[in-house]
Amino acid sequence: MLATLYKQDKLAIGLLGCIALISVLVPVCNLLFPVDSVMHFSAYTVSIMGKYLTFALLGLSLDLIWGYCGILALGQGAFFALGGYAMGMYLMRQIGNRSVYGNPLLPDFMVFLNWTELPWYWLGFDHFGFAALMVLVVPGLLAFVFGWLAFRSRVTGVYLSIITQALTYALLLAFFRNEMGFGGNNGLTDFKDILGFNIQSEAVRGSLLMVSGLVLIGAFMASRWVMLSKLGRVVTAVRDQESRVRFLGYRVEHFKLWVFVLSAMLAGIAGALYVPQVGIINPSEFSPLNSLEIVIWVAIGGRGTLYGAIVGAVLVNYAKTLLTGWAPEIWLFFLGATFILVTIFLPDGLVGFWQRHKHEQKQ
Amino acid sequence: MNVLGLEARQVDNSPGQKPILYLEGVSVSFDGFKALNNLSLYIDTGELRCLIGPNGAGKTTLMDVITGKTKPDSGSVYFGQTLDLLKMDEPAIAEAGICRKFQKPSVFEMLSVFENLELALATHKGVWATLFAKLNNHQRERIEQVLETIGLTEHRSQLAGILSHGQKQWLEIGMLLMQEPKVMLVDEPVAGMTQQEVERTAQLLLSLQGERSIIVVEHDMEFVRSIAQHRVTVLHEGSVLTEGTMEEVQNDPRVKQVYLGD
Ligand SMILES: Nc1ncnc2c1ncn2[C@@H]1O[C@H](COP(=O)(O)OP(=O)(O)OP(=O)(O)O)[C@@H](O)[C@H]1O
Ligand SMILES: [Mg+2]
What we know:
The complex is a heterodimer of chains A (363) and B (262). Chain A has helices at 2-32, 43-68, 76-95, 108-112, 128-152, 157-176, 202-228, 230-246, 252-278, 288-301, 307-326, 331-345, 349-362; strands at 188-189, 193-194, 197-198, 280-281.
């Protein structure tokens, strides 16, 4: 156990180094070197790297609840989207009177709906601090209420997975409605500034990439610390033999709830970092299919290792970028086929395969 | 005794001690089948009680009821004078001091032997307390002591999943010890153990009586004979058939009939 942890550590350190390198090197080269230099990274590379890092964080968040706690949550995308909307609302408020309708108080879609004042739930979102707090509070609260109900009545397994899918689907339908006040079908977009700086500028885009890398490293370290604590061992025990843990005096539902809320908050942060980098958040982020994709990233990378989720998220999304540019209609088939092949031939994912390979080499 | 480094405790098994566990008129049915049928049982403080009975007699179901896993259809179950166990859930009952070893060895296979004991350690079991938990010297010593007692010191960092059946049984007994319970429910502790291991288990249980109340379920009659110093209860078809010393019970014609008749 200790020996494998040490080995995992070396891998983890390498991975963190890579993340740090990417999140510093890419934006710096983008800014410092002229466009025709080989050392130059395009703005496109900067934004796509930033996107991958937020997906990696999203995968990491799912690994906490699925890989360690054994709860196959199929609604992780909902927390990501909620965090994204919280950030999107702040960015909308930053537009001010520069919108098409030029209303200083209301976003365009509200003017379009003939609304005259800001709904109460938009209040406070002109402050970055408040919005940042909501990025954590809204997904965390939803996870808390949902988890409290589900875990307390001991809903487990497939049933739990299905109701998490239903949760994200319900939110999808709700956010599609214009009257909800979140821009309906179109969502929130046309952002101008973040913290007073032009969101399109290369410096801001580079900074967002750096922040994403930094947050990912921080989240990884924090998650690792949690999972190496006694709580991590209790959670692993819950995954393998839930009822036995109860007879030791642990309130299993409290432990699950704690991890679920943590996981939802991390997903929320990922969403909040994603939105300014892609420039839009709309209800399609709640699509049940998105949540399934996250599961596939983690399965391919290897669950229950934390860095497996990161590797899986980046690799799958890189493949997605390549494939959707080339033949978008086969992407879903490709993803499905990869998932099936991985579950059959690499049940522990790429990281698990790598570990076994190393192990065999030693012997 | 010296094998384990444990001292035999002065045992006062004189009848008339205060019961610590009361079960009265307990019935449990599964789809109409009565696994427990109007069962009443009283366990004294510090008593080592053996519970025997043919397969399907309801011994495990009885433990399920006491530990909160199964809620009976009727009857009452009290711990001490005041704690109504039927109003409590599994963790609450465990925290109150009733701990259990399962019939099928239930250890955490993905954790090491040491970590299994660490999780069982009697300490705060809340989420935040667990997150920041650090073993102090006293607790570390306690784990070492239990490792010694169950003979797994050398296997401390091995995954529990690769232990032999007998070793898993011992580990689970060790987890029971770590919990420092007032009442220990031990379901078939010696299944899959070698003769030597069986003897050590008997010694261990004998050394614990007096300090803790223990209910032992076992089919191995020789083992039961070696630990049954006071009372043995025979269960049959969900109720108590008879109670008495091992000798009385063994000579009871009804008991003979039950064991031979099935
Ligand atoms: N969850 C359940 N659902 C249905 N029937 C059950 C359940 N649990 C136990 N039973 C039945 O109740 C009866 C008593 O079972 P129990 O496990 O308590 O017996 P036991 O005395 O422990 O037997 P053994 O010596 O074989 O362990 C058996 O006939 C069993 O089939
Ligand atoms: Mg049984």
